[in-house]
C-alpha cells in the first residue's frame, strides 16, 4: 500500500473515529518524517528504507498539492499557494537526495514546520 492510498484510507477512517482531519494529517506527517530520519541515521545499509520513506513523503506531498490545487479547497489562496510551492520544493529536493546531490535536512525541516503548524492549529480547537 502506498502513502497516497494510506492517506485516503486514513481520511476514510476519520469518519469512524474521533480523530480530526488535522490529527490525521499530523499523524501522516509524523510517521513519514520519523521513517525518513530513522532510515537516514541507519547509514548505507538502510538506504532502501530511506528510498521508500522518501517516496512515501513525495506521495504525501503530491496528495497535498492536488488537494490545494482544487478550486473547491477552502484554505486561503495564499496558504494554498505556499503549500503547493512546498510540494514542488519537496519533489526537487528529494530528487537531489536520491542522486546524492542534496541533503535530507531541508526535507526534515519542511515536514517539521508542517507538524508544528498542525500542532498549533490543533491546540486552538
The value of Rg in angstroms is 15 Å
- Spans of at least 5 consecutive residues whose pLDDT stays below 50 are none
The number of E-state strands comes to 0
Helical content class: over 70%
Mean pLDDT: 87
First-to-last CA distance: 32 Å
**Tally of contiguous helical segments:** 5
Reported for the largest beta sheet, the result is: none
Instruction: Kindly estimate the percentage of residues that lie in beta strands according to DSSP.
Output: under 5%
Order of helices and strands: HHHHH
Number of domains: 1
Structural class per helix/strand content?
A: mainly alpha
Short description:
With 125 residues, the protein is an all-alpha fold. 78% of the residues lie in helices and 0% in strands.
Main features:
125 residues, mainly alpha, 0% strand, globular
Write the layout of secondary structure elements.
Layout: H1 3-14, H2 21-41, H3 47-69, H4 77-98, H5 105-124
Helix pairs in contact: 1-2, 2-3, 2-5, 3-4
Molecular structure report:
This protein has 125 residues and is mostly helical. It has one domain. It is 78% helix and 0% strand. The chain is built from 5 helices and no strands. The longest helix has 23 residues, at 47-69. The radius of gyration is 15 Å and the shape is globular.
